[in-house]
Structures are given as structure tokens and as C-alpha cells.
Amino acid sequence: LSMHYLRLALLVATFGMFNIVSAQNVTSASADEIGQAWAGNKIGAELKYGNKRLQITGEVDSLSSVGGRYYIALKAQGLFLGVYVYLDPSAPLDAVANLSTGQRVTMQCDGMKDSFGIECYQGRLLKAK
User: Fold this and answer.
1) Does position 5 have pLDDT exceeding 60, yes or no?
2) Residue 8 dihedral angles phi and psi, to the nearest 5°
3) What does the alpha-carbon distance between residue 100 and residue 72 come to, in Å, rounded to a whole number?
4) Rounded to an integer, what distance in angstroms lies between the CA atom of residue 57 and that of residue 126?
5) Contact yes or no for 129/104 (Cβ under 8 A)
6) Where are the alpha helices (DSSP H) in the chain?
7) What sign does the CA torsion over 118, 88, 67, 128 have?
8) pTM, whole model, 2 decimals?
């Protein structure tokens, strides 16, 4: 019986460590910080923000779709096109449908890259003001 509790305690402690590690793997930045980083040094910006889970806070510039993929474009100082957060197709869109340009939001997304503009994928709305 005590071995069972020991295993359970070890499992709970291990699971808790993974949650702490995964929470630390999120990089938070404003869209302006990302824009300035990319405008100043693309290599440095890719190393800092590329291939990471990001939480980006910024002002909505536009909400649209291209090729059936929805995105939210955030204004970003230093970038003409801003930061495009392509929404995760499985994410609920109800809250996104109520957003408007000029609104301040925090988005979570994965893997930023420089394509036609700065793009991030698997986006989800975390907070809107």
C-alpha cells in the first residue's frame, strides 16, 4: 500500500515539474518589441522568437482570411505589415468573431517566421480588452 502512494506522489511531482517547464517555455513580447527586433536584426529576431511558443500583446490592425485560413494582424512598430497570427483551425472562433480593429489583445501562437510578413501559427486568443 505504501509503495502505491509513493508511486502516486512521484507521478504528481513529475507531472508538476513538466507543467513548470512548459510554462517557462512561453516567450512573452509585445508586437512592437517583435517588430523592432525584426527591423533591427532579422537573424537575432529569428533566434529570439522563431520556433518558440509566444504570447504576443498588441493592437488589432485587421482580421481576415487567406486561402481559408483566418488570421489576426497586429500593428508592430518597425514592420510595414505587422505581425500575422494565423488561427489554429481547431480553436473556437466565437471570441475572435467579436474583435474589432484597434482592440488590444494577447494571442498565443507557435513558430514565428519571416515570410510575406512576420507570421506565427496555431494562434489562439488569450485575452481581449
Assistant:
1) no
2) -65, -45
3) 10
4) 10
5) yes
6) 2-24, 31-40, 42-49, 94-97
7) negative
8) 0.79
Cell 489554429 belongs to 88
CA torsion, points 13, 14, 17, 18, in degrees to nearest 10?
-140
Q: Are strands 83-87 and 118-128 parallel, antiparallel or unpaired?
A: parallel
Kindly indicate the confidence band of residue 24, based on its pLDDT and cuts at 50, 70 and 90: low
What is the Cα–Cα distance from 79 to 71, expressed in whole angstroms?
A: 17
Mean pLDDT of the chain: 84
Distance separating alpha carbons of residues 129 and 102, to the nearest angstrom:
10
From CA 28, how far away is CA 109, in angstroms rounded?
11
CA–CA dist 40, 97 (Å, integer): 34
Asked if residue 108 lies in contact with residue 57, where contact means CB atoms within 8 angstroms, the answer is no
Residues 6+ apart with CB under 8 A from 34: 45, 49, 56, 76, 83, 112, 118
**Residues in CB range of 51: below 8 A, 6 or more apart:** 111, 112
